[in-house]
Amino acid sequence: MTDTICAPATAAGGALTIVRISGEEAIDRVSAIFSHDLTKAQPRTVHYGHIHTPEGDIVDEVLVSIFRAPHSYTGENAAEITLHGSPYITQTTLRLLIEAGCRMAEPGEFTKRAFMHGRLDLTQAEAVADLIASRNAASHRVAMTQLRGAMRTELENLRQQLLHLTTLLELELDFSDHEDLEFAPRNHLLQLTQQLHRHVQALADTFSTGDAIKNGIPVAIVGAPNVGKSTLLNALLGEQRAIVSDIEGTTRDTIEDTVLIGQTEFRFIDTAGLRHTADSIEQLGQERTRAAAERAHIIIMLTEPGVPFPTDITPRSDQTVLRIVNKTDTFRAIDGTGLDTLRRQLADAAPHLAATDVVVTSARHYEALLRAADNLARVEQGLSSNLTPDLVAEDLRHAIAHLGDITGGAITPQETLINLFWEIGLVYPSLYIKWSKLNYFSKRQLSPYLKAIST
């Protein structure tokens, strides 16, 4: 990865534009079109001057920030040119950089290089995209927490515990012919595995919250026909999004839209009215109503005086249900009476996260965690049924690999070997220090491990 890339780092239309350049020769390339020599510039310095054409014509009055590897976003030599926000100036500067030897960056390439140089792991690289796409304070907070490495730290802690467990199994396997040595009893290994399994599953279970925060808290509005569901949706959105009619069965499919309430985005789903009907299309709409209620975080059950609440919707224990009687003195969707109270109830029912809370927002992370949890369940079963250590360790290695898929890292055999001798040193320090003088181990047994570590 020796070529030098450039691209605008800010959206078009502002008063200022930043063009970012990264690569081994980034500073040289910028220096070629700048009014001063930057090749000897100190890192983390800002330089005032002009961008100029080869003929000496001034393009713009700019500031150039200098970063040297590895202390830059990408881990490479880098520069950022702050220009006036004219599209002509931006395009001319990019053309001059390309003529000087740069190429236009591919989408996401700066973040890709940051990952390749170890400046970010995969969770942080994905958090960059989430941060750019965040539309409210809650999704911004989650993205910033992940960008700061909270998910990486959480997974690294799990990784180290799994490595510890793997090492204990490797020790049990390697020294199984020494019955007087016991590095960890099976019941202890089982307890460790159960704790890790619960931890991984609990992390996976945060996906419903994380996905809701990222894409909007899903709120299903359900009830009988003509109780005011579409009117309520329109009132919450502040626009005529759904068709309102006195004719029953007007809404035959779900209608979705989002709105910001406080610092949280909600995704409201207007649904088909629930009633007994022979109309096959209306029946299909009601099936979708039940599906929408099933995946909702909050269910608004709406009715009117004299009409019962729907009985064929069975909320889960983790769902919030708000029962509202419309067309009364205290609540009328058509003129907004009671809407402020409803908005407060919705805000209270939304997930409230601390700045340090780690939640899963990516389906990729969720799938990997479920696979790791499944492997740990098999480890529990293997330990309970006294399977041989090699078979149990295989499932552990798969669990470690799935966690590594999330961050882009994995435990290598060399790490396991190093940790193996660390564990020996903790449990039996005399064996580790004086192994050549003891009958427990022979040089023939241990020398392959030592050789692997030294190489």
Shape: flat
Q: What is the spatial order of strands in the main beta sheet?
A: 3-4-5-2-1-6
What do the pLDDT scores average to? 82
Q: What is the CA–CA distance across the termini?
A: 27 Å
- Largest sheet properties: 6 strands, mixed
Key terms for this structure?
about 450 residues; 11 strands; disordered C terminus
Report on the architecture of this protein.
This protein has 455 residues and is of the alpha/beta class. It has 16 helices and eleven strands. The strands form two sheets. A six-stranded mixed sheet has the order 3-4-5-2-1-6. Strands 8-9-7-10-11 form a five-stranded mixed sheet, with helices on both faces. A hairpin with a 7-residue loop joins strand 1 (5-8) and strand 2. The protein is flat. The protein starts with a strand and ends with a helix. The model is unreliable at 242-253 and 416-455 (pLDDT under 50).
Layout of secondary structure:
Elements (H helix, E strand, L loop, with lengths): L4 E4 L7 E7 L3 H6 L13 E8 L5 E10 L10 E7 L2 H13 L3 E2 L4 H8 L5 H12 L3 H11 L2 H25 L11 H20 L1 H9 L1 E6 L6 H9 L17 E7 L2 E7 L9 H16 L2 E6 L16 E6 L13 H11 L13 H22 L4 H19 L5 H15 L1 H5 L9 H12 L1
Parallel strand pairs: 1-6, 7-9, 7-10, 10-11
Antiparallel strand pairs: 1-2, 2-5, 3-4, 4-5, 8-9
Helix pairs in contact: 4-5, 6-7, 6-13, 6-14, 7-12, 12-13
